[in-house]
Amino acid sequence: MAQVSFEGVTKRFGDTVAVDALNLEIPDGELLVLLGSSGCGKTTALRLLAGLEEVSEGTIAIGGRVVNDVDPKDRDVAMVFQSYALYPHLSVARNIEFPLRQRGMAKDVRAAKVKEAATTLGLDTLLNRKPSQLSGGQRQRVALARAIVREPQVFLMDEPLSNLDAALRVQTRADIVALQDRLSTTTLYVTHDQVEAMTMGDRIAVMSQGILQQVATPEDLYAHPANTFVAGFLGSPGMNLLPVEVAGGVVPFPSTLRASSLGDAGAVILGVRPESLSLDPDGPLHADVTIVELLGAETHVICRTPDGSRLIVRQSARAAKPAPNDQVRIAVDPDPAAMHLFDATTTQRLTAP
Fold first, then answer.
1. Who contacts 179 (Cβ-Cβ below 8 Å, separation ≥6)?
2. How confident is the model over 110-135, as pLDDT tens digits?
3. pTM above 0.85, yes or no
4. What is the C-alpha separation between 60 and 172, in angstroms, rounded?
């Protein structure tokens, strides 16, 4: 078993708290994506697991063994870096076999393992090339092959696709998912890219300012964000967030939405995904169009309401497009599931309507 656990893990750099009391369990065989913007603590958490940084407080365990004081080389983890970290003077084959040579494995055993890893990642014809003769996608596959040839308990991947172009990212993330599914190796994958997170992770853990915000499946995270940070961060574009007043269990926008459990809650934040809004001449909300973004199959209409709130409406590219400075009216999907209510003070999710 290669379950990974963080229990009350904190990391300080002087007066700066990079990771704050992190509690996180990664079951054996799961691909968990640690998602957040730059500086949120996600890479620090990965480096703590790898042993490249020392824990200030708390414990980290791999397979039930506390590894706080275990050297990185003895933790049985393999890392794949954003920069590939290949040896430029070695061939692809020698790069892949490098960790096996360090372990003193016999030559014939090394050769068999290198061949198997190369075949798995489609590198058979590239084994005699140097890294400088490879494309970015091929270099990343070499880095992956070097990781899997060790057969570690845990894979650690730190923004491994950041240096690839858009088309290669799509192909390589599919390759990683297929590889992880085949090997069933526990994997912690760090990224700031929510598309990677949504398409790759069995679960996603969202971090902000060193604090874990929510852990859930991609579907549940999108449908039931725990707070306004997750709601606004996840989605492209993120959820629209509007300040509203609840009185008598009625939310004023849309007027048909009832949240009787809230009673006279007063100020709350109403969250609505852009796809749950539409331009409708009979809609209850007035707004001015500021920008219209054409994105191939869809259009994002960015509006400003009379109270200064920013709203984004996602619609099909086939729908009639307004122009900047047009005055429009906006309707909202009447399905209660399209509405998300958050406490205006704590920003935490409230009971669904």
1. 120, 121, 144, 148
2. 999 999 989 888 899 999 999 999 98
3. yes
4. 30
